[in-house]
């Protein structure tokens, strides 16, 4: 299944607030479709798990195959599979760029990375899915176009709270990864255990 490129507010109305997908707010309250008015209908256990899975997919802008690979990777390691899954997703370079306020959404962060605006430990990295580690340093490419673009994004989102595992120096547009993400620092409201349960029958 390819990455979603359709109307983003339609997804927000169906699933709920997804800060990584869009900053827009829909004026409509009901879910999309002709049955949207019956959105108070009780959901089945499968639908509840499916909804949580879709939250992860659309918020982080990943494909079904990518999410499945992260699930497999998390289950192979010791510890809580749900926590490990969220750690993998949160430590992606595109998500970190978004959490720093360098881009308004994760989709916009992917573009910054793909176009070579981001330096990781002094080298250009154009892979949005690159997993960052503690002590990694992140800088903006030394060009006026790159710095102006990121500075404009930072000014638009001055109220953004940088999570504890990241350190940002706004004046020089540099950041550092201090540690792995803490569960409390994750902005998305998600029940990761339901996602693991959704895939338990497929693995």
UniProtKB/TrEMBL annotation:
Domain Small ribosomal subunit protein uS4 N-terminal positions: 3-90
Q: Which SMART domains match?
A: Ribosomal_S4, S4
Q: Where is the RNA-binding S4 domain?
A: 91-155
Q: Which GO terms describe its biological process?
A: ribosomal small subunit biogenesis; translation
Tell me which domain of life the UniProt entry assigns to the organism this sequence originates from: Eukaryota
Which InterPro entries did the record assign? Ribosomal_uS4, Ribosomal_uS4_bac-type, Ribosomal_uS4_CS, Ribosomal_uS4_N, S4_RNA-bd, S4_RNA-bd_sf
Family in the record: Belongs to the universal ribosomal protein uS4 family.
Full protein name = Small ribosomal subunit protein uS4c
């Amino acid at each position: 299944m390819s990455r979603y490129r359709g109307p983003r507010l339609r997804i927000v109305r169906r699933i709920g607030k997804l800060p990584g997908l869009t900053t827009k707010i829909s004026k409509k309250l009901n879910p999309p479709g002709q049955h949207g008015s019956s959105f108070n209908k009780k959901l089945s256990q499968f639908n509840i798990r499916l909804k949580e899975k879709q939250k992860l997919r659309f918020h982080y802008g990943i494909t079904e195959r990518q999410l499945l690979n992260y699930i497999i990777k998390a289950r192979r390691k010791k510890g809580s599979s749900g926590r490990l899954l969220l750690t993998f997703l949160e430590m992606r370079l595109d998500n970190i760029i978004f959490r720093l306020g360098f881009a308004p959404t994760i989709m916009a962060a992917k573009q910054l990375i793909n176009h070579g605006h981001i330096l990781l430990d002094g080298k250009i990295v154009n892979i949005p899915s690159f997993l960052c580690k503690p002590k990694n340093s992140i800088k903006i490419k030394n060009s006026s176009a790159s710095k102006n673009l990121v500075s404009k994004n930072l000014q638009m989102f001055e109220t953004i709270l940088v999570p504890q595992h990241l350190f940002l120096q706004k004046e020089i547009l540099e950041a550092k990864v201090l540690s792995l993400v803490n569960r409390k620092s994750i902005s998305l409201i998600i029940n990761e255990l339901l996602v693991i349960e959704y895939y338990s029958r497929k693995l």
